[in-house]
Amino acid sequence: MRYLDLHADTLTEIAAGGLRENDNDIDLKRIRAFCRQYVQVFAIWKDAAKVGNREKEFYALYSRAMELLAECEDDILLCRRGSDLNTAREQGKSAAFLAIEDISLMGSRAGRCKELGFSFAMLTWNYENEYACGALADQSKGLTDAGRELVGELVGNGVVLDVSHLSDQGIDDLLEVSGAPVIASHSNVRSCSDHPRNLLDCHIREIIARGGVIGMNFYRPFVGDGNAHLTQWLRHIDHVLALGGERAVALGGDFDGCGGEFMDGIRGVQSVRWLWQKMRQAGFAETLLERIFFENGESFLLKQVKG
């Protein structure tokens, strides 16, 4: 099978081993056991509120991530544009894209996203920073003036904005400032599970209308309060489909970002094959599964991620 995932924190969470084999949620050994083509958006992340020198911490994390990818360069290609997917496929390699999760971690270097190889950027994490307010801080606060300016700069440089951690007002502001397609790399549906990190229907519709993609998250609290089983997770997908999202719904499992708190049946990337089988048994057509597990994300990368 083919598998594309829009969000994982693995490159900043590996403490022992490497990307080929480790005790984290993702490694290439487990991927090879079930997957013939693999594409992953890897996030660089740290809780900026707990960091002293943000730029120093960022470069340490970034350098480590680049080392981990370089160690596996025979198996996985770091892609800077969507067309690099074709190169990876021709070389028989997996493909990796980079995202910065909370751009404030980069300090004064925030505008250098594209130069450093980042295809995606989130203005904030769960908190409020100099650019925007996070979904767990205050849903009524949006982008700052500095955030609006940065959005224009990032979009102008070809960076895709990711709204997954933005407040409701922040998403509204971002959609007003820029008409470019956006993604929600690892968010579910608030009308199915009332969590502030899940998306409102109005935002889902706008992401779909702009040709964006939404990565369904495996994190238990986002799936359902005390009801985080496959049937509940599938309700989120069905809802996006009902809003017209057949070409927008994708996977954003949040591997190595959930602290092991996955919905029932998910234990790590090795569970992806199980998920496909369960969804097939639940009545999802193979053509739709191909779109969810790979093609929707691939189409977005090819069209929207430019050099």
Q: From the helix content, strand content and strand pairing, which structural class follows?
A: alpha/beta
* Named CATH architecture: Alpha-Beta Barrel
CATH homologous superfamily placement: Metal-dependent hydrolases
Shape: globular
Q: Kindly report how far apart the N and C termini lie.
A: 28 Å
The topology string of helices and strands comes to: EHHEHEHEEHEHHEHHEHH
Largest sheet: 6 strands, parallel
Q: Just give the CATH class.
A: Alpha Beta
Q: Which residues sit in consecutive blocks of at least 5 with pLDDT less than 50? A: none
How many structural domains in the coordinates? 1
* Tally of individual helices: 11
Oligomer: single chain
Strand content: 5-15%
Proportion of residues in helical segments: 25-40%
- Rg to the nearest angstrom? 18 Å
What is the averaged pLDDT score?
Answer: 97
Annotation, overall tally of beta strands: 8
CATH fold description: TIM Barrel
Main attributes?
307 residues; alpha/beta; TIM Barrel; six-stranded parallel β-sheet; two-stranded parallel ribbon; 8 strands; 36% helix
